[in-house]
Specification:
Butyryl-CoA Dehydrogenase, subunit A, domain 3, single chain, 253 residues, Rna Polymerase Sigma Factor, Chain: A, 2 domains, 13 helices, 0% strand, mainly alpha
């Protein structure tokens, strides 16, 4: 039996506080990893160290709630909890400027409307023409809304969770919630499959393989800013589809 397995058993079966503290030390690297993956720019309200601190809170919550009997890797479960804790704090501070939220809404609606009209994902030229702006302005808008769009996608799928590795403890006790989550995952998976190839690849590497945008840039041979732009477009497309799905759930409830 390796050290981590022994620590888990000592904590979960015997309630050892020493084992709990050692588990936090063993997995604290996940806190920094989760914050770095979000590519956040510290604001006046939160420094990088503040973000790490909130990430550690999410890690501790994950350790306390992790079920050894579930067929889920702790790292996957923990990243979901850590990410959710950090994003919840950012949302509570209303970090996103109003102008950025407005641009996000404009872009999301443009991508969604054009996709319905064209019956395929629109390209950037089509979006810029639809909005009546130059390509350089569209690229700036995509860059500006990158972080906000990421948080909005989380809000559509679940409050405080990852869009792929969602592990909601309440689902086990709520069959209706479990069924709704299952439908959302199925629709999300189909929506991801329908993304343009490069956007599909970035989403898969970011959410399934847990690579940072810098690592994805190295894999795909482009700049990190380019990956950020591709990722933002994918998120805008997906959040638009999932928002319509959520509205459909609400109407049928």
């Amino acid at each position: 039996m390796d050290l981590r397995n022994k620590l888990w058993l000592d904590y979960k079966q015997k309630g050892s506080e020493t084992a709990r503290e050692k588990l936090i030390s063993e997995y604290v690297y996940l806190a920094k990893y989760a914050v770095d993956r979000l590519n956040l720019s510290p604001s006046g309200a939160l420094s990088y160290d503040d973000l790490i601190g909130h990430a550690v809170v999410g890690l501790i919550d994950a350790i306390e709630k992790f079920d050894l009997d579930r067929n889920v890797k702790f790292e996957t479960y923990a990243l979901t909890r850590i990410r959710g804790e950090v994003i919840d704090v950012i949302r509570s501070l209303d970090w996103t400027p109003r102008s950025v939220r407005k641009h996000e809404t404009i872009l999301r609606e443009a991508y969604a409307r054009l996709e319905m009209e064209l019956e395929r994902p629109p390209d950037d030229i089509e979006v810029s023409k639809y909005l009546g702006i130059e390509m350089c302005e569209l690229e700036k808008m995509l860059a500006d809304v990158g972080q906000s769009a990421l948080f909005s996608l989380d809000e559509v799928v679940a409050s405080g969770g990852d869009i792929i590795a969602r592990s909601n403890d309440d689902e086990r006790d709520d069959p209706a919630m479990c069924a709704e989550r299952s439908d959302q995952r199925r629709i999300l998976a189909r929506a991801i499959d329908e993304l343009p190839q490069r956007e599909h690849d970035v989403v898969a590497l970011y959410y399934y393989e847990n690579l940072t945008q810098n690592e994805i840039a190295a894999v795909m041979g482009v700049t990190e800013s380019r990956i950020c732009q591709i990722h933002t477009r994918a998120v805008l497309r997906l959040s638009g589809k999932l928002a319509r799905t959520s509205a459909g759930f609400a109407m049928s409830a």
